[in-house]
Structures are given as C-alpha cells and as structure tokens.
Write a structure and sequence with these properties.
The protein is α+β, with helices and mostly antiparallel strands. The protein has two domains: 250 residues, Beta Polymerase, domain 2, CATH 3.30.460.90; 175 residues, no CATH class. The chain is 39% helix and 18% strand. Strand 3 and strand 4 form a beta hairpin. Helix 2 packs across helix 4, helix 6 packs across helix 8 and helix 8 runs antiparallel to helix 9. The radius of gyration is 25 Å and the shape is flat.
Length: 451
C-alpha cells in the first residue's frame, strides 16, 4: 500500500508546485480575470464581486484522469460570485430541500409592481456562459483575432505568453470554457495521453499542446440575514463565521428548478490546505481508485464529492496524520463501506446527511459488497502493491462481476457469495474455479477477501 501511494504521488498526481503547472495556473487565472472584465464591458448590469479558484487545482489534489480517451488534460474550477444580474435587485433565500435553497430576486423593472420577488432559475448558468462567450468573441474581433479558427495566433484578449508556454482560448460551451496550452519546456506530461497533440501556436519554440477545461459557475454568496426558513419553520443552521454560496444545481431529477445547492467550498478548501500532505495524497489515491473503477464500467465506487466529504470528516478526527497516507487511505475506504451500509454520509460542514442529496442513492445498497471487497483487497496486501497490480485486480473484479451478471442475471452480490462460500468448498477449490473460468485475468489475491 505504501508503494501504491508513492507511485500515485510520483506518476498520477498533478504537482501544482512544478514550474510549468504554476505557469499554466497563472495563465488561466490571467485570462479568466480578463474575461470577467470583458463581461462587465459587454453586459454592465451583470456585476461580479470576485472570481475565485476552487476545486482540486486549488487544493493540490488534481490527478491525471486514467484514460487516453479523455479530451481534456487538466480541469480547473472557478466560481464567479455574483453581485447583481440585469433587471434584478437584492437577493433573498429560502430553505427548501435538504442542503438547498430557493433564490429569489427583487424585480427592478420600473413598470412592474414594487417589492416583487421571483425565483431565479438554475438555467442562468447556461445563459451566463453564452453571454460571456459573446463578449469574448466581440472583443477578439476588435483585435482581428484568429484565435478561434484552428488554434492559430490569438490576441491580447484571449492569449497569454508565459516562460514555459502559452495559453489560448478555444471555445465556451455549457458551463465550461476550453483553452489550449502549448508547452515550450515540456516539463509536464500527461502519462495517459499516448498521442501527442501537435503544436499549432505561433510560438515556434512550443512543441506540443494540452487541452484545458475550466468549469465556470455563477454563484451567489448567501447573506444570512436574508435567509428565510421553510414553510414549516425549519432550516439548516448557518454560522456567521462561515462563507456559504448557492450553486445553480437542483437536488433530484424530479425536483423543480427552483432549488440551488448550498456550497461550503471555501471552508472545505481551507481544511484541505491546512491538513497534512499524507491526507492530501490519500485523497489523490482515493480519486484514482474511484476513477479507475468507473472507467471499467462495473458500477460506481465513490463520486468525487463523496470522496472529498469522507476525507474531510476523516481529517477532523484523525490524531495521527503523519503516520502514512496508506494508513489513512485504508480508514477512508472503510468509512466509504460504512457509509454505504448505513446510507449515511455526514456533510463535513453542514448538519445533514449528504446521501439524501446525491444522485448516487440508488446504487448504494447494490454495491455495498463491492465496497467491502475493494477495502479488503487493499487491507490484505502484505507485499509491494503497485498501480499495475491494482489495475489488473480492478479488471479482474470487473470481468468477474460481469460474468456473475451474465450467468445468473444478478449483481456483484453473486461474486461476494462465490468468494465467501467456505461452507461449501475450500478456498483453493473456489480459486481454481475462478481461474478456470477467467484464465486471462489476475485473480490470485481475491481469495484473501473470503472472510
């Protein structure tokens, strides 16, 4: 386990303190602030109080996504804290679904009645990016920019040159803005991208390119003095010392689009930046495990925000953060299993059960046995256990689960029953049966799980 953590740290984790990644982060930040200025020029009534980097690039927990088929190499998360929108006055908030609020704005149309508040629809995020892109394109046209046609030379609006490379705006769509980074020093390499993207920038010194995506979300900072309870008088208690935002994201597929998700991203970022490097590495390994399982397509292990909450809860009570990332990782994996069996995951800042909000609630019972199997697989390792060992075991589990489903029409529970049927056969007999059925996959460690 120590070796696996060491390999993830060296090969999979994006090192935000490296010179080129620092340049990329600075370049993205420069262009994002330029674009906010462009938005203010294009739509003066849209006022952004501040721009803030959040998510894994801010936390230092970004990993290279373990597939060569992903279009983007790096992903950033930015929030635009909105002060006002066109034809809107002050905002008021009302508790509604668990972990969510309705956002209502004052209508300022002089021909409408006064003191009228209406709900702000969550689709505002799509319109936000559309207006931003129109502003960027209009600004680029003034500079005779060719940056949006075949990744050629950009302009002083959409391109910035750094010591280790240059960054150019590509396209904006949905809630994302895409950029292209052309590297000069080539110090940063995506280990999972086997096909190089040939340089198309005007800088003759650049050699290849990265695709960079920015998830850009308009959010509203919650003024606690303007928060109303639910109709029954209840609501989540909010602390004045904390900063809360509401994101335009509803709760359930069947829920109305009035709900905005409450976010404590600023508090979460502070907890992660103040914790030990062992906890950060354990979080990165947990992400790598979850993404690898997802790519093999045999069921979800843990979503990224679930993983973050498990990590943050662990940080709160962990008394030995420096004992090793592998020790904390095993405890986190055990916590994930417990959360699956109890269908309870405490939000790290707000007092509510996160599983009541996440869309993953349906598979929690179904994959509880898989959660336990994966935990025991890691806990049983006594020798050097590498990334390749895990990927091979992961593939074996995927094929076994698929075989169980195809042969018996059931789920991963069948695999657990086969692996633990000591009352009917010895472990050696079960192992022989598995190896005969799936001779091309590594299944030698699986019998350690028969407990």
């Amino acid at each position: 386990m120590e070796y696996l953590c060491k390999e993830v740290d060296e090969k999979i984790r994006v090192h935000v303190d490296s010179p080129e990644v620092k340049d990329i982060m600075k370049a993205v930040d420069i262009l994002m602030h330029r674009f906010v200025d462009v938005l203010h020029e294009f739509s003066p009534a849209t006022k952004i109080d501040r721009l803030q980097l959040c998510g894994s690039m801010a936390e230092g927990t970004r990993i290279w996504y373990p597939t060569e088929y992903l279009l983007n190499d790096l992903e950033f998360d930015y929030i635009a804290v909105m002060k006002s929108l066109p034809v809107s006055g002050s905002f008021v908030f009302k508790h509604c679904c668990e972990g969510a609020m309705e956002v209502m704005y004052e209508v300022t149309d002089p021909q409408s009645v006064q003191d009228k508040y209406v709900n702000l629809h969550e689709d505002i995020k799509s319109r936000f990016i559309e207006i931003l892109v129109k502003g960027i394109n209009a600004k680029c046209e003034k500079y005779f920019c060719t940056g949006t046609s075949g990744f050629q030379s950009g302009c002083k609006c959409c391109t910035v040159y750094m010591k280790t490379g240059n960054l150019r705006y590509s396209i904006g769509r949905g809630s994302q803005i895409a950029f292209v980074w052309s590297s000069i020093d080539k110090m940063t390499v995506n280990p999972f991208r086997y096909n190089k993207m040939l340089n198309a920038s005007p800088d003759h010194a650049a050699t290849d390119m990265f695709q960079i995506i920015v998830d850009f979300h308009p959010v509203i900072e919650v003024d606690i003095s303007k928060v109303q309870p639910k109709d029954d008088g209840t609501g989540l208690p909010l602390i004045k010392e904390n900063t809360y935002f509401v994101f335009p994201k509803h709760c359930y597929p069947a829920c109305s689009n009035k709900c905005w998700r409450i976010s404590t991203c600023q508090t979460e970022l502070q907890l992660l930046t103040e914790t030990s490097k062992e906890h950060i590495l354990a979080f990165c390994v947990l992400k790598f495990i979850g993404q690898s399982v997802e790519l093999d397509g045999y069921g979800g292990y843990v979503q990224q925000y679930e993983a973050k909450c498990v990590v943050l809860n662990h940080i709160k009570w962990c008394k030995t953060p420096y004992i090793g990332a592998h020790v904390c990782l095993l405890q986190m994996m055990k916590d994930i299993y417990k959360c699956g069996t109890s269908f309870f995951l405490q939000h790290p800042v707000l007092p509510y059960n996160l599983h009541c909000v996440l869309s993953t609630r349906e598979y929690k019972y179904k994959h509880t046995n898989f959660h336990k199997t994966l935990y025991l697989l890691f806990a049983s390792q006594k020798d050097i256990y590498s990334i390749n060992d895990f990927l091979n075991d992961n593939k074996s589990l995927a094929v076994l689960e698929c075989g169980m489903r195809n042969e018996r029409g059931r789920s991963f529970i069948d695999l657990r029953s086969l692996l633990t049927k000591r009352n009917k056969a010895t472990p050696e007999v079960v192992l022989k049966e598995l190896n005969e059925r799936y001779p091309n996959y590594r299944i030698d460690n699986i019998m350690e799980l028969a407990v």
